[in-house]
């Protein structure tokens, strides 16, 4: 059954998580260096048990975690989500040896994971990826050759879930997922200077050796590993966006109630009040669609791909609208470095691109509609 409201226990947990994020995680985030992994912050997420919950929680609980963290500390939310994205293929498709080696380290916040799918010429069209896995005659392994780009947590992660082409010309059916530790010979990387404050980089594979025991899932079935991961996390990307929208809305309510102009508070101007009402309505609509998609995932509903795409599409586009409107209503102060809205304005843009751009979500939705 779709979730249209939270019960008192869920509401209390969300409030507690927001308070924890503000009191404990926000100070660690403020000490971090933009563009680099904030390992003390990741360690704190592990100590609080939040990373471990990524692999035990249902999709709805994951969304509530991400939304709550995003309202108080977007850096903590992103660090948590990236651990989940990079390590979920290990938890879902890895061998017992993979899980024993890496999951305790990830959940404790000692090991940093990364999801290495995108390439210079294969972003939204993930089936077109060109990183080669060239077979070697001895041992039944492969050598990885090529480049990954726009990889969150690269090049500072401790291991990567890497998707490579094992069968040329086979499209999505010729891709294999590998677990690649960062210390493998031939693997190097460099950071990219991006608008978003979290680390993003490129990875170069110069004959990096991988073996059958490094395969996640099955050979040539790696695209399924990727899509399973993205379907789980897409609704929660929407939750991240909803959290940012709510933070911007809360800031706008406080500002327009206290700021005086033209003889009274801004909130008494009809143009302002109507704008705030629109922001609140769109935020709530996005939240409900995210919750419904998460509930469908937890129930194993057949229309999860469509619902997940709808949730990510509406929530990320809504967050962009709400944050932009909040900046407009705050005026120039919102663009001052260090202001909450200046931070959100930089953060809110990327979710409309990563884990499937807005246009890709529309394509998925249309495909599912015409197939029904």
TrEMBL record:
GO terms for molecular function: acyl-CoA dehydrogenase activity; flavin adenine dinucleotide binding. Residues 114-206 form the Acyl-CoA oxidase/dehydrogenase middle domain. Residues 8-109 form the Acyl-CoA dehydrogenase/oxidase N-terminal domain. Residues 220-369 form the Acyl-CoA dehydrogenase/oxidase C-terminal domain. It comes from the Bacteria. InterPro entries: Acyl-CoA_DH_CS (IPR006089), Acyl-CoA_Oxase/DH_mid-dom (IPR006091), Acyl-CoA_Oxase/DH_mid-dom_sf (IPR046373), AcylCo_DH-like_C (IPR036250), AcylCo_DH/oxidase_C (IPR009075), AcylCoA_DH/ox_N (IPR013786), AcylCoA_DH/ox_N_sf (IPR037069), AcylCoA_DH/oxidase_NM_dom_sf (IPR009100). Keywords: FAD, Flavoprotein, Oxidoreductase. Its cofactor is FAD. Belongs to the acyl-CoA dehydrogenase family. This is Acyl-CoA dehydrogenase. The lineage of its organism: Bacteria, Bacillati, Actinomycetota, Actinomycetes, Kitasatosporales.
């Amino acid at each position: 059954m779709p979730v249209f409201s939270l019960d008192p226990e869920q509401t209390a947990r969300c409030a507690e998580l927001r308070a924890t994020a503000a009191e404990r995680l926000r100070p660690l985030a403020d000490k971090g260096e933009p563009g680099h992994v904030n390992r003390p912050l990741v360690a704190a997420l592990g100590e609080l048990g939040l990373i471990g919950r990524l692999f035990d929680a249902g999709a709805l609980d994951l969304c509530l975690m991400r939304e709550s963290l995003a309202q108080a500390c977007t850096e903590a939310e992103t660090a948590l989500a990236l651990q989940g994205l990079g390590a979920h293929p290990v938890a879902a498709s890895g061998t017992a040896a993979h899980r024993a080696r890496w999951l305790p380290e990830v959940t404790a916040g000692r090991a940093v994971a990364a999801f290495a799918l995108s390439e210079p010429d294969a972003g939204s069209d993930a089936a077109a990826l060109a990183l080669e896995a060239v077979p070697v005659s001895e041992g039944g392994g492969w050598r990885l050759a090529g480049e990954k780009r726009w990889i969150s947590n690269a090049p500072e992660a401790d291991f990567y879930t890497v998707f490579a082409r094992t069968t040329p010309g086979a499209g999505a059916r010729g891709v294999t997922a590998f677990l690649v530790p960062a210390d493998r010979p031939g693997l190097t990387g460099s950071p990219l200077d991006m608008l978003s404050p979290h680390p993003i980089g490129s990875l170069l594979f110069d004959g990096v050796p991988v073996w059958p025991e490094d395969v996640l899932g099955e050979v040539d079935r790696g695209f399924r590993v990727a899509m399973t991961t993205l379907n789980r996390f897409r609704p929660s990307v929407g939750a991240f966006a909803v959290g940012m929208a709510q933070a911007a809305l809360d800031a706008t309510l406080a500002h327009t109630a206290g700021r005086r102009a033209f003889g009274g508070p801004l909130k008494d101007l009809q143009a302002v009040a109507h704008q705030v009402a629109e922001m609140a309505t769109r935020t709530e609509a996005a939240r409900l669609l995210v919750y419904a998609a998460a509930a469908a995932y937890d129930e194993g509903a057949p229309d999860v791909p469509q619902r997940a795409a709808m949730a990510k599409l509406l929530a990320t586009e809504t967050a962009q609208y709400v944050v932009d409107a909040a900046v407009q209503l705050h005026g120039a102060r919102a663009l001052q470095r260090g202001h909450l809205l200046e931070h959100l304005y930089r953060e809110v843009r990327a979710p409309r691109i990563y884990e499937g751009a807005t246009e890709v979500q529309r394509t998925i939705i249309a495909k599912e509609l015409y197939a029904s």
